[in-house]
Amino acid sequence: MRLQRGRWSALACALTLAACASTPPATGTDDLLTGRLGVVVEGQADRSFSAGFELSGDARQGRLALTSPIGLRVGEARWHGNVATLSSSDGERRYDSLEALADDLMGETIPIEALFDWMRGRPWPQAAATPLPSPRQGFSQLGWEVDTTRASEGSIAAVRQNPPPRVTVRTRLDTR
């Protein structure tokens, strides 16, 4: 199912929530990430967005809060085991998995489980990865090239060329 413009806008606004969220970061944990996220699906401007996020947990259990550019909470996704829910002003939707939720919202397959590690500048341990050719910094994994050149600044870019269309996911983590 492809995302309609209104739902895509809601997702974009929701992703912005976390960057502006007033919830203080957890102390002493490595499982809370906050920052900004951008997704570009080339050739389809209505499927590009940028927003804030607050992500906690991992691929098995977690929460993703999303905000608008002015800090308004637009949506929240929660998952545990084989159940994922998305709560927004349109109500609540249930999915059989986190991947199903992401596929429905983004209209493209994005390796959500791997993103948890990629945002931290490292390959996902569940799949083979190869270093990018020098002088580039990063790795290829699951058909994506993950650029870690600016990982020390909290910035990661992941690009999938094939299958078309080209999809780029950029994250910029807040520093604590």
From TrEMBL:
The entry's cellular-component GO terms read:
cell outer membrane
The alphabetized UniProt keywords are: Cell outer membrane, Chaperone, Lipoprotein, Membrane, Palmitate, Protein transport, Signal, Transport
- Kindly give the membrane topology term recorded for this protein: Lipid-anchor
Instruction: Say which family it is in.
Output: Belongs to the LolB family.
* Subunit description: Monomer.
Q: What is the name listed in the Swiss-Prot or TrEMBL entry for this protein?
A: Outer-membrane lipoprotein LolB
Annotated signal sequence range: 1-28
> Could you give a single Gene Ontology term from the biological process aspect?
protein transport
Any Pfam family the entry gives: LolB
Q: Where in the cell is it found?
A: Cell outer membrane
